[in-house]
Design brief:
Layout lengths: L3 H57 L17 E7 L9 H18 L3 E7 L1 H9 L4 E5 L8 H16 L5 E11 L2 E10 L3 H4 L20 H76 L1
Amino acid sequence: MASQRDVKNKIASVKNIQKITRAMEMVAGARLRRAEQRIEALRPYAEAIGRMTRQAAAAAGSEAAQLPLLREHPTPQRVGLLLVTGDRGLAGGFNSQIIRAGLRLSAELAEDALTTEWYATGRRGVSSLSFRGHELRGSYTGFADRPAYADARTIAEDLIAAYVDERLDRVEMVFNSYVSPLTQRVTRQRLLPLSHEALGEDSEQTEAPAHASVDYEPDPEMILRRLVPDYIEISIYRALVESAAGFFGAQMTAMRSASENAGEIITDYTLQMNRARQAEITQEIMEVVAGAEGLS
């Protein structure tokens, strides 16, 4: 059985770790609240861009299909896969579930004779893919905790250029949608070419009543040509913001669990230390009794 001093040292070590995990939980909670506010501020703008794009696509009619970002390549061969991860760990399975989802999707594409071109945001995704021997066509790090719109624009410009130059025939994005601090849902979104479903042409007609009339100046095709890149940028930015909120939620939950586990370990060690103290006292009493019997 370990001595009291050994057990005390273990208790002190676990308590120090518990202090760190509690501090990290508090920091993650504060950052989560700010990230939630960013999501709430972003959603109306993202929905407005989506609504304007849908209406312009409907007004452009068949001409919309001629736009480079809406036109499907006849014989697709290469699919760009963008994985949105965090720059740091200690967040449970937050990053690993995105990596696994990306690898599964890549395997599915391989079954259809499609080649995966990897893109990743966040150091965790970049390092994991590089460790597995995958060549990255684009890596974006250093902003996962607080992404800016300029970061999303940089990513979107690279993907759009690759698609227009026919270096990519399709672009998919995998990220963690923020549901709650306890739940982050792995989401797959097709970025390019924009499908009819993505533009919401099958959605309810409550947005634009049949009797409504909109005059476009310039023509709807020119407006759509400008709106589609914005739609892609805002889609990527929203994924970055939701991923940031999901990361802080996952980290807060993981650190809370770690703190509770540390408390259980401290309790176990305290019981072990009490048993060790009792054993030492019992041993001392036996030695005293044995010495007294020897004198008598």
